[in-house]
Amino acid sequence: MRIGLVQMSMEFANPDNNYKKAEELIRLAAKENPDTIVLPETWNTGVFPVENIKELCDKNGKQTIELFSYLSKELNVNIIAGSVVNEKEGEIYNTSYIFNKKGECIAEYDKTHLFSFMHEDDYFKKGNRVTTFELDGVKCGVIICYDIRFLELVRTLALQGIKILFVVAQWPVSRIKHWEILNEARAIENQIFVACVNSCGTAGETIYGGHSALINPWGETIAKASYEEEIITGDFDMKIFDKIRNTINVYNDRRTDLYR
Ligand SMILES: O=C(O)CCC(=O)C(=O)O
């Protein structure tokens, strides 16, 4: 599967411009003929939370679903639409929507671990379920930013059989080392591909650190971005699973009598 990561900088609290820009960047990314294109976290508002967040956010994913159903079908590409700030039944969620090449919205995931250090939990409601879906016959999962610190969540997805983990984030440059190590570790320990996309530029007072990457189940980097706005593309070769799991087979060697 060929993957394109859109490392985007967004305009703070300006969804109209951010939707236009996301469309332009998706069209640009599509020129490399990827099977799947991925956007970063909360690119519609460039949150961190602002007071008028309820006016700025999407409503039940309407604007997001309209745009990406159309684009994914027209461009014949799967789209992981990063995540958007999204109102559902009066509550605000950090929601990721997933589209297949036919333009169908096949899955949605609400961020389950809210970043209390930055008071995300004062504004957002937690999602309550893990999400898997199939793209071109490959089982995948998606998580959002702070979720990557919770190895149990990724192991749960891995035990459900995902082969690719998509991580969408707005991760600050000040902790970019953690971002790099956590993504590599989740790939190695679970023997899965990781496609992690971060934003760049600034939102409020925070500088986001880029370093989006495509990592294989052996922990090797297939493609990596730097700090600036950039699109990177690379190929995930699914044949690698046989090679790895026939050598170090952590799934066979797990001690489920001691832990789950
Ligand atoms: O865990 C971190 O250091 C960053 C997390 C974060 O910025 C977020 O989840 O929004």
UniProtKB/TrEMBL annotation:
GO MF terms, alphabetically ordered: hydrolase activity
Domain of life: Bacteria
One Pfam family this sequence matches: CN_hydrolase
PROSITE patterns listed in its UniProt record: CN_HYDROLASE
Alphabetical keyword list: Hydrolase
Residue intervals of the CN hydrolase domain: 1-238
Family to which this protein belongs: Belongs to the carbon-nitrogen hydrolase superfamily. NIT1/NIT2 family.
Protein name: Carbon-nitrogen family hydrolase
